[in-house]
Amino acid sequence: MAGPSAGVESGGDAIVVTGSRIPRQDLAGVGPATVVSAEQVENTGIVNVETLLQRLPANAGFAGNQSSAYWASNGYGTAQVNLRGLGIKRTLVLLNGRRLVAGGTGANSSPDLNMIPVAALARTDVLKDGASAIYGADAVAGVVNLITRTDYEGLGLSLRQGITEKGDGADFSADLLLGVRGDRGGFMAAVTYQKTSAVNMASRAPCALREVAPGTLSCSNSAATVGGRAVLPNGQQINFNQTPGGDGDFYEPYSPAKHNFNSAPFLNAVSPVERISTAFFADYAVSDDIQAFGEFLYTFRKSNQIATPGVLRNIAISASNPTNPTGEDIVLVQRRLAEPGPRHFFQETNTWQGTFGLRGSLSNDWRWEMSGSFGRNTGIDGSTNIANLEHVANTLDPAKCSTAPGAAIPCGDYLGAGDISPAVRDYIFFTSRDHGGNELATVSADLAGNLFTLPAGSVGFATGVVYRKEKGWRDPDPLTVAGVANTNQQDPISGSSTAREAYLELSVPLLADTPFFRALTLDGAVRYSDYDLFGGDWNYKLGVDWMISDAIRLRGTYGTGFRIPNVPELFGGVSEGNLTTTDPCSNYSSSGNATLIANCQASGVPAGYTQLGSTILTTIGGNENLQPESSKSWTVGTVISPRGIVPGLSLTADWFDIRIKDAIRAIPGSTKLAVCYASQNLSHPFCDDFTRSSLTGEVTYLSAQPINTGREQMSGLDLGLVYNRMLGDVSFSLDVNATWLNEYIVYPFPGGAPIHFDGFIGGGNGGYPKWRGYGVLTAEKDGISATWSTQWIGKATDFNADPGDIGYRTPNIFYHNLQLAYAVDDRTRFQIGVDNMFNRKAPFIQSYTDANTDTMTYDLLGRRFYAGFRTAF
Fold first, then answer.
1. What is the CATH number of domain 15-198+271-307+346-385+434-574+621-668+704-872?
2. Which of 117, 223, 318, 518 is the most exposed place for a label (fewest CB within 10 A)?
């Protein structure tokens, strides 16, 4: 990492800094950025871009990662980054300054970070500042620019094998890098193969925990039982035989402690992924002034997850049905279909992107570039052991089914564990298959150079035009679309958006080499974007860079941003899913909260109500009424490099402030319920977004579709320290970054009460602790090096818990990692390492996503080891 400087796209005397398209002599630029070099990636044992970025303190909130069951937006293994916690859709991901196609299984909103082989990267630049005027839409929170190597020659090979302390989660990766350079150009190819084994969730979290009694955690598990939970006409809940092969007519009063189903053994803490990523880069000097270049990427990914057996819900079974031993009409509220075992979700994706362009220089040293690229991602996903609800209904209809052997429609018995016969299983279960994909087409032309010279220096400029078309689609299995599958109902998604853009950027040196003004530069950029769906929009950015002396520098930026709803937000079909959700009315009678008690009673929730399980059926999907969101952001900071006092030391501090209007956001169900029941007399509009059963009091409908919220505002402070020093013949390098989140407030609608995210965690939102940090210390002598890295996740308060509850406030969490390496020479290096050295466990969070914690924030695996080597020929 390198907090004081922004990233570099190309070599030479003049470089292109990430966050600007004007070639410059100075790396620092005018915006806060973090640069992670290839050397630091190697020293910390990181094997994918996902891990690299998610350790940085600028990353927060909700994003897909391998240790989360909530892989977002049909990604199922798509690695994402969420700068500032403002949402993956507000972070723009680039490769060498150009956009990447979205990855996933259809109609997705962000690229797969692991599409790029790590061996091909020279550095990764993270611009923590809005840059819509420079790069166009989506750069609201910042930009991640993946910069590839251009100078590699030879054949390189690296291998790495990792495993957890418990002997699971094996992780193998192999990288091959080939580079050839000649007088007129060169070629580089990189291939990465990675395979990760599963880690069962029960090995890390044996069961789902709830504070059923004050001060005591106990397994709550799922109220979808293997025997079947039913309601009699008088409202009494009963449960049928729980023992396979037992008395099929047995039933008794339902008891959560006795009957509930433990889902943990049927979930993964880490799901297996197998990936092959390839990248090819070439350049050729057509003449002394013109160079042709090309890029081609291809990634194949296969991933899968296990899930709990499916559930039948609200099935009416008459008293006359032969399988009903009660003699009364009943409603089978929930019945776990455990007979065939867990569901197995699977995904296969193919993603490729090709770019071709020409670049060169004119006689006045102006630089130009023209390029076109096209990317396409296609995916297949599905699940085994999905029940066809029409077939289930047929097996319960005596007029259609038969008990005769070999009957086309066998009669089914769903009252009692193990009572579903093999014939019924064959008839009702099927494997679903969905298809989808994403496309990105861009054509751009850019021109940059110096317009004229002022006393303080040359006035630089950059200008260009861009055409961009994005498309996404997703076609779920026909039975899923029809709503007859006992899985998340989904509608097809298909949509596209087209943008035509033009930009102009200027850099004007105002003063130079005068007292208190070593250099003073004013930067400005303006961009016009015309969208086929929403019309035109102007965005601009201003920056000031003031070098008081070689040791002290002040900088600041102000800019606007604009983001149109993406394809899944706008065109996504409505679907339903069982999402981990906290019901505030669970055990409300003993809460002591007068407002909560009154509101739960007003909702008809019984006094002794306890949430039956940890999930609630939630409606998600797109919203055709969404409008674009706009933003304003500013930063002000300083860079201090006291070379005369402490050689090798550089300090940075940057204040950031981001305000988003008409923000597009899906408020998680747990948050909606908590806010509703905290309002007087159920007055909050969120109270219209759910319904409860008049029989049991449990939530039966909950909406979490995206809306244009009133606004969002965020501010905080980024701190950085870089120190390089020789002590004797040992070289030391220290690189530390920290972020303090001052505030993050979401106003759910104009005039609505604010929802504070800063300092909070859980509820499906991810983590927003006040403090985050990441530091790397490396010592090296005679080819032997030791690297210690530490990730700090600060204290946070559960979004939906009450003071005094277990897990109401999380502690500071530090993850320490150590690597020892020996470089035989410049080509060959051996390494061993341990991550999460002190086996720090994830803290308990009441409104957890999975595994009793926030899987978007904390490490589930515990201590793990790895060994690897690289060599070159």
1. 2.40.170.20
2. 318
